[in-house]
Design goal:
ten-stranded mixed β-sheet; 3 domains; binds nicotinamide-adenine-dinucleotide; two-stranded antiparallel sheet; Isopropylmalate Dehydrogenase; 12 helices; alpha/beta
């Protein structure tokens, strides 16, 4: 029987309990998964002097596939995001985030099936920043001043690089995804009216690549209009391709449309490596409470099973998740209608219910 070596990063906050629940469900498919468990984040700082020890990256390079729980990033100061570092280090240039309505989810909308293709390495997430009051910040402000760009001397500066090659790669990914998954429309999201040389370049490349896929409809939206239209008529949208920052914001918005972060899975994909993780963060307030919804991580596991070619197992997990949501009995607080949260079950009970469904369906 075929077996797969998978790097497993439990993460912190709610990560470890979601990971345990997800492992149980994925193992119940019968697919032989050998977990290579490694840790990253604040909890390993003391031991390794870094939140992302080299052996974690090596494990993913070796196994080529990883499943990861969320990892906390300090706000404002402290170490930079481990999540962003992993994507950059491993050249995981595409963040794929499907947002799909499941019947029974308490939300105002139904029949939504949007896939967000987010550029994962450039834009304001490139990590090129100049802190107020530092010598490099002063040098940059002076240099830009000489070129006629006036910046107040007490400014913090973050740089937004968007390249032609990076844009071409992500837009092509979006169109290939659309073609392979029989999707009809790709919408490019931008603010090219204001940022003419970064978002403008992204849009120009998107228009160019679109000509190679005449069977797929192409259109674009300015990001502010996009958010309004997503709320007004989400069913219209199919595949969205976005630069990094807009992709991040829009994927949380779309998660909200389909019932919340508890049902929003994701994948970070490169040419040969793949790391699967939910869209949500570490929700520290629910840490250790057996309260958070494990479905987003389980559905990330579904994406992982599809990636390794275990399509039947992937369908079995997704069908069981959908059936448990539809029944509405064994779901966490976020999937209970207003006023019924006290009837919610915990993380581990959701896993029990899904495994039970898999055995029956
Ligand atoms: P969050 O996603 O952790 O939480 C936002 C809201 O959604 C909270 O109300 C939370 O309780 C709820 N929520 C999240 N996941 C849920 C789940 N599975 N079930 C039920 N409810 C859920 O976002 P945040 O509070 O902005 O971030 C917390 C930390 O996570 C930060 O340090 C942030 O940097 C980090 N983060 C990590 C990742 C990642 O690891 N890829 C992604 C996003 C945020």
């Amino acid at each position: 029987m075929k077996s797969y070596n998978i790097t497993l990063i439990p993460g912190d906050g709610i990560g470890p309990e979601l990971t345990t629940a997800t492992r149980r469900v994925l193992e119940a498919t019968g697919v032989k998964l050998n977990w290579d468990i490694v840790h990253a984040g604040t909890d390993v700082m003391a031991e390794y002097g870094t939140p992302l020890p080299p052996h974690v990256v090596e494990s993913i390079r070796r196994n080529k596939v990883a499943l990861k729980g969320p990892i906390t990033t300090p706000i404002g100061s402290g170490f930079r995001s481990v999540n962003v570092a992993l994507r950059k280090e491993l050249e995981l240039y595409c963040c794929l985030r499907p947002c799909k309505s499941y019947v029974g989810t308490p939300t105002l909308y139904n029949n939504i099936d949007i896939v967000i293709v987010r550029e994962n390495m450039e834009d304001l997430y490139a990590g090129i920043e100049f802190e107020k009051g530092t010598p490099n910040n002063a040098r940059l402000i002076s240099f830009l001043g000489e070129m006629g760009a006036k910046i107040k001397p007490d400014s913090g500066i973050s740089i937004k690089p968007i390249s032609e090659s990076g844009s071409r790669r992500i837009v092509r990914f979006a169109f290939e995804y659309a073609r392979n998954h029989k999707r009809k429309r790709v919408t490019a999201v931008h603010k090219a009216n204001i940022m003419k040389f970064s978002d403008g370049l992204f849009l120009a490349v998107a228009r160019d690549v679109a000509r190679e896929y005449p069977e797929i409809e192409f259109e674009d939206r300015i990001v502010d209009n996009m958010t309004m239209q997503l709320v007004k008529k989400p069913q219209f949208f199919d595949v969205l391709v976005c630069p990094n920052l807009y992709g991040d914001i829009i994927s949380d918005l779309c998660a909200g449309l389909v019932g919340g972060l508890g049902v929003a899975p994701g994948a970070n994909l490169g040419d040969t490596l793949a790391l699967f993780e939910p869209t949500h963060g570490s929700a520290p307030k629910y840490k250790g409470m057996n309260k958070a919804n494990p479905m987003a991580m389980m559905l990330s596991g579904v994406l992982m099973l599809k990636w390794i070619g275990e399509t039947a197992a992937a369908e079995s997990v997704e069908n069981a998740v959908a059936a448990v949501i539809a029944e509405g009995k064994n779901v966490t607080y976020d999937l209970k209608p207003e006023g019924q949260q006290d009837r919610a079950v915990g993380t581990s009970q959701v896993a029990d219910a899904i495994i039970d469904k898999m055995n029956r369906l």
